[in-house]
Model the fold of this input.
Amino acid sequence: KNLKNARELFESYLNEVFTKKGEGWEEKTLEKIGSTQTGSTPKSSEQGNYGDFIPFIKPADFNRDGSLNYENAGLSEHGFKTARLISKNSVLMVCIGATIGKCGWCDRDVTSNQQINAFTPKEGIFSKFIYYQMLTENFQKRVLHSSGQATLPIINKSKWSSLTVLLPQKYAEQERISNQLDKLMDETNRLESIYQRKLTALDELKKSLLHQAFSGQL
Done:
């Protein structure tokens, strides 16, 4: 229950921030405040396309805290020529399949496969602020609604680019709110880690006691 409550506390605060919003916040489409693109996959039949020149992000590379795993498959310099560059400080979202809506952000230049859309902010837009807003219940619902919610839900780049976000006019305010959410996210992850270790320890204790009971050691 504590593990569940830790996550719900963060989600509650996150949704409240963007529901109440602040004075002077403006609603704008993603395409108005940055550039959007869909990833592409170089031919897997050509092994020369793959290497360690630049990370190649797939849905499985999104970590729970929004960071990305850069250590899996990458592209070679040759493969990068047929891919699309996603610039550092962009926001990524899975836009097809069972994990549609999963979000992440990159702290370096990357590429991705075609299951992922990327948003690269213009000057004056703090990328982590957009990342956190994409995590909200409201934004996630709009992604699902635009996907058609078929057997294989998918939202194309055009519909995704036309989704709106709320923005404080000042960059400093976007950064301040994002930093607050960073701190709360870190604390939530710390609590989850503690609770998960306790659950693991209790499970191991239970197995040990059962073993002792059935082996006549109690």
